[in-house]
Amino acid sequence: MTHGTQVRAAIVGSTGYGGVELIRLLAAHPYVTVTSVVSSSNAGTLYSEGFPHLYEIVTDTLDEVDPQLLKSKADVVFLATPHGVSTKLVPSMLEAGLKVIDLSGDFRLKEADVYSQWYKKDAPEQGYLDRAVFGMSELFADEVKGADFVSNPGCFPTATTLGLYPAVKAGWIDPDTIIIDSKTGVSGGGRGLSMANHYSEVNENFKAYKVGVHQHTPEIEMVLSRAAGRPVTTTFTTHLVPMTRGIMSTMYATLTDKSRTSADFNELYRQFYEGRRFVRVRPTGTYPATKEVYGSNYCDIGMNVDARTGRITIISVIDNLVKGAAGQAIQNLNLMMGWDETLGLLFTPVYP
Amino acid sequence: MTHGTQVRAAIVGSTGYGGVELIRLLAAHPYVTVTSVVSSSNAGTLYSEGFPHLYEIVTDTLDEVDPQLLKSKADVVFLATPHGVSTKLVPSMLEAGLKVIDLSGDFRLKEADVYSQWYKKDAPEQGYLDRAVFGMSELFADEVKGADFVSNPGCFPTATTLGLYPAVKAGWIDPDTIIIDSKTGVSGGGRGLSMANHYSEVNENFKAYKVGVHQHTPEIEMVLSRAAGRPVTTTFTTHLVPMTRGIMSTMYATLTDKSRTSADFNELYRQFYEGRRFVRVRPTGTYPATKEVYGSNYCDIGMNVDARTGRITIISVIDNLVKGAAGQAIQNLNLMMGWDETLGLLFTPVYP
Amino acid sequence: MTHGTQVRAAIVGSTGYGGVELIRLLAAHPYVTVTSVVSSSNAGTLYSEGFPHLYEIVTDTLDEVDPQLLKSKADVVFLATPHGVSTKLVPSMLEAGLKVIDLSGDFRLKEADVYSQWYKKDAPEQGYLDRAVFGMSELFADEVKGADFVSNPGCFPTATTLGLYPAVKAGWIDPDTIIIDSKTGVSGGGRGLSMANHYSEVNENFKAYKVGVHQHTPEIEMVLSRAAGRPVTTTFTTHLVPMTRGIMSTMYATLTDKSRTSADFNELYRQFYEGRRFVRVRPTGTYPATKEVYGSNYCDIGMNVDARTGRITIISVIDNLVKGAAGQAIQNLNLMMGWDETLGLLFTPVYP
Amino acid sequence: MTHGTQVRAAIVGSTGYGGVELIRLLAAHPYVTVTSVVSSSNAGTLYSEGFPHLYEIVTDTLDEVDPQLLKSKADVVFLATPHGVSTKLVPSMLEAGLKVIDLSGDFRLKEADVYSQWYKKDAPEQGYLDRAVFGMSELFADEVKGADFVSNPGCFPTATTLGLYPAVKAGWIDPDTIIIDSKTGVSGGGRGLSMANHYSEVNENFKAYKVGVHQHTPEIEMVLSRAAGRPVTTTFTTHLVPMTRGIMSTMYATLTDKSRTSADFNELYRQFYEGRRFVRVRPTGTYPATKEVYGSNYCDIGMNVDARTGRITIISVIDNLVKGAAGQAIQNLNLMMGWDETLGLLFTPVYP
């Protein structure tokens, strides 16, 4: 594809927060045009009626979920659909010859029984699980390049594994001691109504949820096991922060060599992420806050070795809707198409 | 100036919120390069140390406030300085041959005594007051075009007068009945520390401030008087909302012809703002919320005529740091340079 | 009733925010014991399962809505039920010999057609409308004393009419010029799920709602008409603030005698509310913020006369769940029983 | 002291958040009267001028810091002063015969060099360190009873050690594996102005701070070492949540006997805290949120054993200004005086 040709993109599940963010980000992409916004409900209505921030910006009406229709209007489909829905939609989309980037959790895990155990749903067919490339852009870019079906990582796994991978891969921390304490803004819970997202219940409140049972646990362990070269089990706890956007993972592990310093780790991470513009390894002694990546595709990482305890604390932040969803999906599209991975994604964080 | 040539911009007061927002927005401008970030304190230190969201994005060190230095590095200077400071800096900047866009309140009012009365400071020299073009982009674009010194409007006056001007100009509301109830996010108070901006004092709190004495009152009256063709006095009250960004002005006035409807006003406003992309007149019966313009240069307006009372309620929202400060300043630069006023400013609002 | 005897109270609609607040406040009342928590759904389940903040404090299970059961367990019933539900429940409750305090809007308006027009529901029978005493405690205490059926005022009307009544009654402002700009925290919207209360839609957002059609409009006008001695029509606009609790009404009116000052009005209000402990008239030149009454039964009022425009700005704040609902309901119970109206209600505001 | 006699209390540092909260809570205490509010600055001014939520409630003017004056007006002194200030004030207060409850960190640690190392200040004299009873009410009540000088615990150590003590004491977790991930509302940072508490910097932001160097670390280790009967070292990380009140500590440790279940631990904790009304051990499978103890003196605890990893996750929440400061201080006063420890403290949490 030459630069003169626009790639046409359809967004299925366009009325969820992931879909809305894809629309915002793709509006600034030089080579992509959104040609269809799709919703299983509300087809035929004006998109901007439900999203007045896009008044006079998006003038489309919502399309139905119809692979042939999509094929006629688009080259690539983003599935920003709930878990379980992608399982049903992907085969017909691929069969229709569309490139597919799935933002749900359906195709991330490669073992059907692990999926069923954590997601409490029937897994997709194994053939599709095998075919889906797991799109953690900074770790597995080579596999994403040229793929036609990418499973976009979860928000927590993105922040977490980008923060842990270099240390595990290098053998500098003991994978059996990893503890992950994650915190997310409320938009991670989506646009569906629930008491858990009701303003007066969340505001001025901090709570843990899905303790010990979060479905992102096996996804994190899958990536860390790959880094370690052997199965890794972790303790992973998620918390809800009274804010809209942002994820922080605070991660703890025991050093394999207690003489290593914060500066050593900082240098290790800088080398590992050399040339990867969206990972910013912060100077030793400083730590990122979620607001510092707000609205952007950055993942910022800081770390501290505590000589008293022989442990490291690693802090990693992302915007859950960008690097944790829509942004990384576009980054994966860039890789799939052979473009510069930063194309259309160099948004400066919105601060304050 | 051809498109191949970059305009070089300096930002004085770059460590305040207005300055920080200029950096974010100008990073996306195709014809402008920020060549100097200036601060009266901290000169010589790395800019991103104080603003880690710009780590690896802005690598400059802070420059001193020195007109000759600025002249050597820049073509245009944005003054995002506190009231009273611009008064002192502008003459030397203009003398050095720099184009100047001043975001402070110093040069907005054209009568020195009115300035002194409301700002409690000595006014600039009358010659400079006369020379400064008041840059309410959608209302006075013709005057801004080709100017070399523009005084950028205040945040409240922008939201307010864009919401009232068409109705006053048309004579459809009685200017003597106008009441303006405005609400702003906390970033409008700037980055300077004060109990009024202390988190625990502001969070989960709503309060009025500067009741009857806000310095934006005469600026609003200046614009409305121009619309009415005679002096207009208004009641203007400001409130602080526990959020970072956003301004809403809710405005009330008595109709001059009680038979006019919401739809009539809606049509009047649509015609008035025809072709002005940053003003979005919302469909009759709907009203804008501040989040719907978050991070963008839009001013959205809705209105309702209440036949019971013969009054109209007009609601106007902006992002105080964009349309209310940095965004309109860049829009004015675009006009000054003869470019399309939307250049570099078509950011989609960040939602949610 | 002697002090040794406890009044037994039932709370119908105990799982809404009004009901939950009644439980919190009544726990500190020296003469009242909550003997039944009632819910149309969930009867039989442990109350604290849905409200873990009351774990080990409230150990009751939810009762069904059954007048005979309530009569056997309680002397007084608080109806914290949605509009339309109270209409159906009140007759049987009164018939069973229970004292009733209704927190819904069903019995506030005395004209059935006005109710139907604004609430879009069938009005209660006129006999019950006539029988219900409108319990604006500070204004109509004499009528509440000894009543057995009190209709508790709405949250906006409470803040608003307490702020306007003395000036209208005294004839110091022109009732035809009154404009009311109100702002409320999100808990005012209740515990029912809706997009309007969804965290990510509300947080960092400020919006107007029900512009020109809010059902509290006729209630406010009813009280102001009583003060003026003739029909009064007002412009009333409501806004949603990203916080949980708190209401502010900012009110504007034209003076009938332009020579009166802020201090004159302050003195008028102090005399009017002499001895009414829950209304705090703030010193001239200061204005209350919502947080300053958080969790308490106070209504704080400040005012400013603007000689430039001949208008007054009056600011009145309450905690919508206390003075605007549960607190005033208990204050009315105190009055009904002939007790000191402050009994059990002298909570110090929670600050910060 | 008989119940008929009121204890007179002075509050030094009454204009900080700890002092303000003492005033709110003591207003409801049946046996205590606040007779002096003290501030090193502003002496002579009306207290409520700075704290309008107390208008007409507190009518005192601020006293100077003068031990003899305090002795003449009070029986007990609460020191809600910054670290370093209490060191200087305590000796003269004790010498004057006043009972002292110190809310600062100055007298918590018993080893002067450890204090100096973590607080970067000179430690108090060893004699006073020895004399101060460490007032973790639920753990060391026997020592507090009858004491005349109590050092009130820190906010993080309160939430944390109440959550860990029973398990460490029982030998059910390995003390060397303990990791503590704590989160606090912004009021924990006090009322002093700093960029770290500036609204626009904190709102919609989540950040870690004092990573590896928080001064509460040795206090936590002191208590856990006492539980373990040997020195314990921990990893402790603190985070700032965009909310005003509330602390959660999420704590991780490896089981010593992997066959123990969540229910086993739940039962252990229930037995340990039997009769201690302010600790609420939540039912197995549920976890407390900070809002569920808002404004109250409760510490709520939940826990989950993860059989996959052989670790336990313990979650403990408090209101940092109540159980983490003013509330526990009053609880300690109750113990010192030989009263029921719950006196004046049975506030129901404010929810929502």
UniProtKB/TrEMBL annotation, chains A, B, C, D:
Enzyme class: oxidoreductase
GO CC annotation: cytoplasm
Active site: C155
Pfam families: Semialdhyde_dh (PF01118), Semialdhyde_dhC_1 (PF22698)
GO biological process: L-arginine biosynthetic process
Entry superkingdom: Bacteria
Domain Semialdehyde dehydrogenase NAD-binding intervals: 8-147
UniProt pathway: Amino-acid biosynthesis; L-arginine biosynthesis; N(2)-acetyl-L-ornithine from L-glutamate: step 3/4
Record has NADP as a keyword: yes
Keyword annotations from UniProtKB, A to Z: Amino-acid biosynthesis, Arginine biosynthesis, Cytoplasm, NADP, Oxidoreductase
Localization, UniProt: Cytoplasm
DNA-binding is among the record's keywords: no
Gene3D superfamilies: Dihydrodipicolinate Reductase, domain 2 (3.30.360.10), NAD(P)-binding Rossmann-like Domain (3.40.50.720)
EC id: 1.2.1.38
Leader sequence segment: none
Catalytic activity: N-acetyl-L-glutamate 5-semialdehyde + phosphate + NADP(+) = N-acetyl-L-glutamyl 5-phosphate + NADPH + H(+)
GO molecular function: N-acetyl-gamma-glutamyl-phosphate reductase activity; NAD binding; NADP+ binding
InterPro entries linked: AGPR, AGPR_AS, AGPR_dimerisation_dom, AGPR_type-1, NAD(P)-bd_dom_sf, Semialdehyde_DH_NAD-bd
Family note: Belongs to the NAGSA dehydrogenase family. Type 1 subfamily.
Functional description taken from the UniProt entry: Catalyzes the NADPH-dependent reduction of N-acetyl-5-glutamyl phosphate to yield N-acetyl-L-glutamate 5-semialdehyde.
The protein, known as: N-acetyl-gamma-glutamyl-phosphate reductase
Source organism (scientific name): Cohnella thailandensis
Gene: argC
